[in-house]
Design the sequence.
């Protein structure tokens, strides 16, 4: 059997014929397997959804309990038969609940890695390389220029700035699922034990992380109405990046705009967004992580889904691996 008979791109998303299901479909389908809870991968309205318990819970928090007709929780490492295919979920190290999905039929194994990273992240299970014939990888940061520094260094820069500017509020933009909680946990690991103030949009997901045993410490709502503006001097406020573009952010005393993203490697991008303290913290693999992971899987063939496909495809070819871009649409560039 050729790999394209096991999985092939369709307008709805990646489709498995032998199992009659889609992985991370962007349109409503009968049966969907979901790698993780980011909204470009996990959409509502499917007939049935198979995903890890955490991903199902996160979808419920975001869309309401009726986000799919039926749901089934996948246990990591457990093989599930779906018609003529079998699937196994493995940790992807991207956000809480994130998984790679190995799809097998007639002795052929394809691993759909979804979004993944290799840097240690105290808020989710680490990525496990899975031996396979075909490895499907993202390429969000698929250029050699992207090399993420250790996250502890970036958090150290944030804490240094907090101590240098005690009258200021440090406003940290971070995506609501995963990145925000990782930044909170990293701050705790670095010894920051004061309250962290959060935008309302982060409350439900942060509470959920805490309920799953990820201690984020003392989180308080970043609302000025009740208290005095001065209360926020010297504090760290975390919110979704969009929140810092509106009036909400201007109410804090002497705000310093920070943004936690792999894109902060690009100075121009930080400047355009008005970011004064760029923090290079990514939930996606950098160039070295992508190329090392491909080698570790032992796959002879690589399909590249979204991001900077060309460079990674070229690298594969130079490494004598068969490679092709899948040109899947609907996945955001920066949905980390
Ligand atoms: Zn993602």
Sequence:
């Amino acid at each position: 059997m050729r790999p394209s008979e096991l999985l092939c791109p369709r307008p709805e998303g990646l489709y498995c014929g032998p199992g009659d299901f889609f992985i991370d479909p962007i349109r409503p389908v009968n049966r969907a397997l979901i790698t993780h809870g980011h909204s470009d991968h996990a959409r509502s309205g499917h007939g049935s959804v198979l995903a890890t318990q955490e991903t199902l819970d996160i979808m419920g928090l975001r869309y309401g309990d009726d986000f799919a007709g039926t749901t089934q929780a996948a246990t990591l490492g457990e093989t599930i038969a779906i018609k003529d295919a079998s699937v196994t979920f493995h940790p992807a190290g991207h956000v809480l609940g994130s998984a790679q999905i190995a799809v097998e039929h007639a002795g052929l194994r394809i691993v759909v890695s979804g979004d993944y990273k290799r840097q240690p992240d105290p808020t989710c299970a680490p990525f496990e390389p899975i031996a396979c014939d075909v490895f499907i990888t993202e390429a969000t940061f698929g250029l050699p220029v992207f090399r993420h520094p250790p996250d502890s260094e970036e958090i150290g820069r944030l804490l240094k700035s907090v101590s240098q500017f005690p009258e200021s509020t440090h406003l940290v933009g971070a995506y609501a699922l995963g990145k925000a909680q990782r930044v909170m946990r990293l701050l705790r690991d670095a010894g920051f034990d004061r309250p962290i103030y959060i935008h309302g949009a982060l409350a439900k997901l942060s509470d959920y992380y805490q309920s799953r045993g990820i201690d984020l410490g003392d989180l308080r709502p970043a609302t000025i109405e009740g208290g005095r503006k001065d209360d926020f001097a010297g504090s760290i406020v975390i919110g979704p990046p969009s929140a810092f573009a509106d009036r909400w952010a201007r109410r804090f005393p002497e705000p310093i705009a920070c943004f936690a993203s792999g894109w902060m490697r690009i100075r121009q991008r930080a400047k355009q967004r008005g970011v004064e303290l760029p923090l290079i913290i990514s939930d996606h693999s950098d160039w070295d992580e992508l190329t090392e992971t491909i080698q570790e899987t032992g796959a002879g063939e690589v399909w590249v889904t979204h991001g900077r496909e060309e460079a990674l495809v070229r690298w594969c070819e130079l490494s004598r691996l068969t490679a092709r871009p899948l040109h899947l649409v609907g996945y955001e560039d920066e949905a980390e």
Q: What stands out?
A: DSSP finds nine helices and 19 strands in the chain. The pocket of zinc ion is lined by residues 36, 38, 41, 94, 115, 335-336 (CB under 6 Å). The radius of gyration is 20 Å.
